[in-house]
Design a protein that fits this description.
The structure is a homodimer of 661-residue chains. With 661 residues, chain A is α+β, with helices and mostly antiparallel strands. The first copy, chain A, is built from 17 helices and 30 strands. In chain A, strands 2, 3, 9, 10, 11, 12, 21 and 22 form an eight-stranded mixed beta sheet that branches. Chain A has a seven-stranded mixed beta sheet with strand order 7-6-15-16-17-13-19, sandwiched between helices. In chain A, strands 25-24-28-27-26-29-30 form a seven-stranded mixed beta sheet. Chain A has three domains: 197 residues, FAD/NAD(P)-binding domain; 180 residues, 2-Layer Sandwich (D-Amino Acid Oxidase, Chain A, domain 2), CATH 3.30.9; 154 residues, Phenol hydroxylase, C-terminal dimerisation domain (Glutaredoxin), CATH 3.40.30. Chains A, B: Belongs to the PheA/TfdB FAD monooxygenase family. Chains A, B: It holds the Pfam family Phe_hydrox_dim. Chains A, B: This is Putative phenol monooxygenase.
């Protein structure tokens, strides 16, 4: 088209780069950027695996990109990580950070599990072997993604780092080992942590240096040196089962190789985890193979040289060939081998063990938590239920916003110690559940299911029950944080607006995450995911389920909205509390002018209605009464109150945020 | 977990990078990489806008990354592009290249259109003004994405370039102007094109150089120098309507500002195009404002100095302020202004014109097309229907695989001239439709709808009809390429297996794109988008709709599959024809062993069933008869034949691909 006048503003040039979220408001002074500040950080993170990278990324996004540093002892991106499974809840969190797409597009989705057991009846001429007992959905709880995803851990780390580089390109320093730390408030009260590091140059020269920090987080894995420096250790029993694991392109006539499979045969147990497509166009398969030749626990821990040599020999016998031969025995009568001409991606042998520490943090003299550990530094366990990377990243996800609030001066002074302490309160409980679940789950896999179940122990039905009962935990969607300053469980009173208790299907409950739903935005009629209004930008949100009286200017809905917009939100720092509003009308039967004007002013693009009649019911809300829900920055419900009592939201928020009015 | 044995293969390290698709097989020798080859390319592309970038990206993905070069006269990424709309079909294509996510996540979705007209009745005390007549869905045809997306053109170019850099990081050379070309087969028969370029260094020095190429593509916009060198020009009439356009953050009480709106008032016409959210969290709005002060066509084209000065003065009077004032008159009684404190992103004034060239390519002495033009170099038109960037990129999408096939030696020697000529045949027709549609659409916008329609011309119903009738074209989903060597329209015979003619809702037809559907993959029970098996990797696909006899080893389905796997596919170069198979069974009532083994061998991960009963019916296929469909690399159907006659697919493919058997 012939343009004859054209004027463009320079701000337009920025519209071409990837979107970035705004940092959290900061009320405390920003540290001076002096030349000496290279050795002074607000947060130091040790370890750049999934947990450390997740924490660094979140803090950078919240606004701490210039004042944090993550150190990793290895010279390059981790390539040895063996975790590969992402739960539905982790996928929701990654989506809330806008980094889920590559994982969803290129990871392997696991929607269905196949259970195989020894043949129950043999016809004339048939061989013994295995048969499929049933299929089950992999995810039975309500979730935005009704499947798990498997993908190389190194790829997830690369995706996290790519995103980190958009917010803070120089936050990872490699080839640097953590040595020790000291709490030394005498030296510098603002930066009470003295941290000793050892840096290795390309020519192998090692130099020590001391840096200072306000906070230290150990994300340095099961052998965490930060944990050791805190005087903590992993405790728990090492069980006596040995497993082999291998990733490769399979050549097989086993029909369910592309599904997650639990295969109990008379000669042992195998688990199939289908993996992603690789660049050749072929698909990886991971096998977990139980090695029947057991190691007595006392032998492996023994200090007796003879016993240790026996143990070493036994372990050395476990080769890739050994693992594949055992797998082939279990798969009989099906063929199962490594595709000709293809190399095995990775294989390993390990012993199952569940261990954890008793504390996840350490306080300074005033009682303020200053040092934290996250991920494998806190808990190790078997890989069977695919929990490792998930629980680790979610530790960081729980800690990050709390740390940012404290440093930015957003959390109230009077509760800030206990505010930070909620990290340990909330995640220690999850770790205990993890250890308990994994112990049960692992021993179950090592148990035998026979055609004659009365003789051989566990029945298929018992197995299936543990699998189903664990789904809230294994999906990550059933995690519930208990009562504390950030979770207000309801008093037993008539005005509590939630009906029902089907929490795994979406019924709201303080301490649980807000389920996603598809809604229709009023302003533009677009279909939207409700969770997309709860992005991980560190903000609290007030979610108002208005009731059928919304169009009545004197109604309860109007009053609640007006109070929240005019009183509650302005009480707190600008940009720290957002409003999301739902209405119950299936049809567009009203105009902006018919509802309180503050909805358009404050939440024009966060005002939605149902696309089907179930919306309110899914959350346990009655459209004749409505509800007010405060959602924490991590997507977990903080408090639920009656629509006629908006003051409860303010009281709750006053414990989480400083008041500016 | 305590790992005591671990072995990792180096190939595993590559699993962390973004996925890349395999290039097309190449049968011709690859050009030697001599030092002089810098000035010799297989394809030279002029212009790095959306059309040129799309072509470069596609060719690089097909395997020509090392032997092509795209030159652009500007020193950096284009920032002045004003196109912003992506059609549903373009989104499907971007998805097939794995580059749609950022656009879908961060662009503005337009799902609904609001039509506003002069008030029909005025009560006592009310003012004249506008009222909403109706809403309509923005996309009424069946499509994977039931909305359009608006987003900054520069961002789309950046996304294309980011992806190009993964395949070929050095394919764009900037600050280089195309001067002229000559067809000079005498010099070098393999590289018959002599192309003259002018390069500008940072210090402004200009140097000329001559390069050689096999093919040349002009994607250099409406003022295309390549087109001029071909001796072609854009022809057509310039109509006499002037429009203003502006992008800004609006401050308004107009209720539908977040929807696409067509607003006819008694004082003129405005169109709202909602735009993406910007980093401040606010949303852009684009306004197209009709300027009533018309310019006679003869005046603007006149060589009379007085007439030209009048025209110039008239144009100079169109300022941003003028545009906004006119908009405000149309929006009355609603407020509509630029948000206080915000700068206008971009504004311009233009005259509507529809022009195109009569040819899109130029042949050498042997009749082989050697020079092509794509995008605005071929056709210019008004921006009203949001077609520009879409039709331009789709020109490249149509040309790219044909060029790659020719250069790689995949297309048969005997038909290769006509094979390449299909680009012009197919896209010239689309351009003509574009010009026709835009002429109708534009003049309709410039027409007036009055409360008393009999007096003022166009009624709202007439307007709506043009809008709806154009939906196949404006969505991009109704484009139909006509009969040619790549499109075999069916002979009228009894065995043609398609019922119905609701092509816009999915009924299959040669020349139209294959509609997406959600299907359930047999191997892993995952829900999949059928279009995800038709990625833009340059491959032909045979899509087999098996019938209810699939489990009968002597049935028609089994025979067709066996013939296709054992005879048809091996006839053509390895990796050039893929198989996708659908089955009609809602329940999983069979095992791999019950169907021909070649399905698992050839299409294990491309074998799907319905998730609802409508699947076959959507495509016009009867599950009692099935169908064989050959889909071109660009997703358009090439031929449809009876399941009992698989030889038709082979005959068709033999016109497109060389035979190796």
């Amino acid at each position: 088209m012939p343009v004859f006048q054209e004027t463009s503003h320079e701000c337009r040039d920025f519209r071409i780069i990837p979107s970035r979220e705004l940092p959290l408001p900061r009320l405390t002074p920003r540290p001076a950027q002096s030349s000496s500040s290279h050795d002074k950080h607000e947060v130091v993170i040790i370890g750049a695996g999934p947990a450390g990278m997740m924490l660094t990324l979140l803090l950078a996004r919240y606004g701490l990109g210039d004042t944090l540093m993550c150190y990793d002892s290895k010279p390059g991106t981790l390539k040895a990580g063996q975790a590969d499974g992402l739960q539905p809840r982790t996928l929701e969190v990654l989506k809330s950070l806008d980094i889920a797409d590559e994982i969803l597009n290129h990871g392997c989705h696991m929607s269905e599990v196949a259970f195989w057991n020894p043949k129950t009846s043999i016809s004339l001429g048939q061989e013994w072997g295995i048969e499929r007992t049933s299929f089950a959905p992999d995810v039975i709880v309500a979730a935005r993604y009704k499947h798990e995803v498997t993908i190389h851990q190194g790829r997830i780390e690369r995706i996290l780092e790519d995103n980190l580089n958009q917010y803070s390109p120089n936050s990872i320093q490699r080839s640097t080992k953590f040595i020790d730390f000291q709490l030394d408030p005498a030296g510098d009260t603002d930066y009470p942590l003295k941290i000793e590091l050892e840096q290795e140059t390309i020519d192998g020269k090692k130099t020590r240096k001391i840096i200072r920090s306000k906070y230290l987080v150990g994300a340095d894995g099961a052998h965490s040196q930060v944990r050791r420096s805190m005087g903590l250790e992993l405790t728990g029993e090492t069980t006596d089962h040995i497993w082999g694991v291998a990733d490769f392109v399979a050549d097989t006539n086993f029909p369910d190789v592309r599904k997650r499979c639990a295969i109990h045969s008379d000669v042992g147990f195998v688990m199939i985890i289908p993996r992603e497509r690789i660049s050749s166009g072929q698909y990886l398969t991971r096998l977990y193979v139980q090695i029947k030749d057991e190691v007595p626990a006392e032998e492996s821990d023994s200090s007796d040289p003879l016993s240790r040599r026996k143990s070493r020999n036994r372990r050395a016998a476990i080769t890739l060939d050994f693992i594949m031969k055992q797998a082939q025995r279990v798969f009989f009568p099906y063929r199962f081998s490594i595709k000709k001409g293809m190399e095995v991606d990775w294989w390993a042998a390990y012993q199952i063990g569940q261990r954890m520490t008793s504390k996840f943090s350490m306080t300074d003299g005033s009682g303020q938590p200053r040092v934290f550990i996250v991920g494998d530094a806190c808990h190790t366990h078997s890989p069977k239920a695919g929990q490792g990377m998930n629980v680790s990243m979610m530790d960081s996800y729980n800690l990050a916003w709390k740390l940012a609030y404290k440093i930015h001066g957003l959390s109230p002074q009077e509760s800030s110690h206990s505010f930070l302490a909620t990290y340990e309160d909330e995640r220690l409980k999850v770790a205990r559940q993890l250890i308990e679940f994994d112990t049960k789950f692992s021993s179950m896999f090592s148990g035998q299911i026979g055609s004659d179940s009365s003789v051989k122990g566990l029945t298929h039905e018992q197995f299936l029950k543990v699998f189903s009962d664990g789904s809230g935990f294994t999906s990550g969607c059933g995690i519930e944080y208990s009562q504390g300053i950030l979770v207000q469980t309801p008093a037993i009173e008539n005005s509590y607006p939630i009906d029902g208790d089907d929490y795994l299907q979406g019924t709201l409950k303080p301490g649980r995450r807000l389920l996603d739903s598809v809604v229709r935005r009023y302003a533009d009629a677009n279909l939207r995911h409700l969770q997309d209004d709860f992005l991980s930008t560190g903000r609290f949100r007030i979610l108002v389920f208005t009731m059928l009286d919304l169009l009545d200017p004197q109604g309860i809905s109007s009053k609640a909205l007006t109070t929240i917009c005019n009183n509650t939100i302005p009480t707190f720092p600008q940009g720290s509390v957002e409003l999301v509003v739902l209405h119950p009308f299936l049809e567009r039967a009203f105009e902006w002018a018919d509802i309180p004007s503050c909805v358009k002013d404050v939440a024009e693009m966060k005002f939605h209605g149902p696309v089907h009649e179930e919306l309110y019911r899914t959350y346990g809300v009655n459209q004749n009464t409505g509800a007010i829900v405060v959602v924490r920055p991590d997507g977990y419900v903080g408090i639920i109150s009656s629509l006629s009592d908006p003051s409860q939201a303010e009281t709750y928020l006053s414990r989480c945020l400083v008041r500016v009015l």
